[in-house]
Amino acid sequence: MKQQLLQRLNDRAAIIGVVGLGYVGLPLVLRYAEVGYKVIGLDIDQAKVDLLQQGKSYIEHITESAIQLAVDRGFEATTDFTYAEQADALIICVPTPLNKYREPDLSFVLDTMDSLIPHLRVGQVVSLESTTYPGTTDEELLPRIESRGLKVGNDIFLVYSPEREDPGNPNFTTRTIPKVCGGHTQACQDVGVALYGQVIDRVVPVSSTRAAEMTKLLENIHRAVNIGLVNEMKIVADKMGIDIHEVIRAAATKPFGFVPYYPGPGLGGHCIPIDPFYLTWKAREYGLHTRFIELAGEVNSAMPDYVIGKVASALNQRMKSVNGSRILVLGIAYKKNVDDMRESPSVFMMEKLRDLGADVQYCDPHVPVFPKMREHHFDLKSIELNALSISQFDCVLLATDHDKFDFTLIEKNAQLIVDARGKYLVRADHIVKA
User: Fold this and answer.
1) Of 299, 298, 367, the residue nearest 329 (C-alpha)
2) Is residue 116 a contact partner of residue 153, using CB atoms and an 8 Å limit?
3) Is 22 found in the same domain as 99?
4) CATH for 278
5) Which residues contact 259 (CB under 8 A, 6 or more apart)?
């Protein structure tokens, strides 16, 4: 069975099923279609499926021409999970958020797997790409698959290969980002490498699904811890009257032993604010307390409140209170030049300002209308930036420094700027670093 599947993958005769058509799944769809595979996309969101079938995009950096080309090459999107039986490979790309107790929420992964189970068959490979704690693949997916009477490693194959998408980064694509892959058995590993080797320039095999799961966590915990460090340094530097961004720029001139990380208003996105908690939760099962990781999480989680404190202080110095002030938040995506708002600190800050009585508006050229979100609700549209509109706000909070913003226009016309991104290098009386 393994040889037959390998042959179909290597000949590009295999049918690829991608489950979850978001920021991770959709680029995979396009890449597999690009090299000639027949691709089926599965998603529970009918609106997404309808747009894809019409050749339209709902993700800013993915063009409609790319989607239409995939459709022309045979790509089909559907909410009907019976289509999974047609696929030789099922790649699961669904969210893994945290619940209200900051514990792993695997409901999307497990519900997806339960929906696929009735349609699994001999000769398939199942790959999980969702970020999760070490052990998820063999503790949760393996028994579900084998409940169908399929022997993993003989009848069907199981791998874990963490996603590494970086939306908005022009220097890396799905094809050029190396792909880590760990199989439940050696046969699973061989199939997983063949699955991804056809569309990714470099596949990096590791010894197990757990090693692959831990690799993804290490990558993002590394970033979270270093961002936590530089956020704490920012607070210390500010108290001492030192510009932390100047310090980082100077330190970055050292050609070895230093990697620059930059402070901000908090962590955002679907990985860095969430992934560390997956490991800290799992570590408790082994009687371990990940103090270093959790401390970084505390520092980063406190950043939105720190920035709001800087806003309040800056307004107070101008004989104004937050209550009743008109405040413009610049950038509500979690990072620059994307439309992705997952876990965006901008949204948390908007809520805090609203709760304090401020009249909050926003401008984000990548998010023209505030979207429907599970936990955050604003009936707002992005305002147009011009000299008059900027001047009418008591405070402009620079939360996400999109390249599309005219920072000179903003500086010239704003009464007060609270800069949470270190964009303004030259000191000015109406600019406050946060």
Assistant:
1) 367
2) no
3) yes
4) 1.10.1040.10
5) 226
Q: How many CA atoms lie within 13 A of 426 on its CB side?
A: 5
Q: Which of 107, 81, 85 is nearest to 94 (CA)?
A: 107
Contact 52, 62 (CB under 8 A): no
Residue 422: both structure tokens together: 């270190």
- The amino acid at residue 260 is P
| Helices H / strands E in the chain, number of each | 16, 13
Kindly report each contact of residues 46-49 with a partner whose C-beta sits within 8 Å and lies 24 or more positions away, as own/partner.
46/79, 48/21, 48/77, 49/21, 49/77, 49/78, 49/79
Q: Determine which helix (DSSP H) or strand (DSSP E) holds 78, and give its type and residue range.
A: strand 76-78
Catalytic residue from among 181, 271, 363, 395: 271
Number of structural domains (the chain) is: 2
Contact partners, residue 173, CB within 8 Å, separation at least 6 = 27
String of DSSP letters for 401-415: --TTS-HHHHHHH-S
For tokens 């992964």, name the residue.
109
Which residue bears the tokens 């929906």? Answer: 115
Residues 195 and 253 in one domain: no
Interval 260-288: pLDDT, tens:
999 999 988 878 888 899 999 999 999 99
Q: Does residue 52 contact residue 73 with C-beta atoms inside 8 Å?
A: no
Residue 393 lies in a domain: no
Reduce the DSSP state of residue 71 to 3 states and report it: helix
74: domain CATH number?
3.40.50.720
Half-sphere exposure (Cβ direction) of 125: Cα atoms closer than 13 Å:
33
Active site annotation includes 271: yes
Q: Does residue 66 lie in a domain region? A: yes
202: three-class secondary structure by DSSP = coil
Other CB atoms closer than 10 Å to residue 61's CB: what's the count? 16
* Per-residue model confidence as pLDDT tens digits over 91-139: 999 999 988 888 999 999 999 999 999 999 999 999 999 999 999 999 9
Residue 47 sits in which domain range? 2-213
Can you give the length of the chain in residues?
A: 434
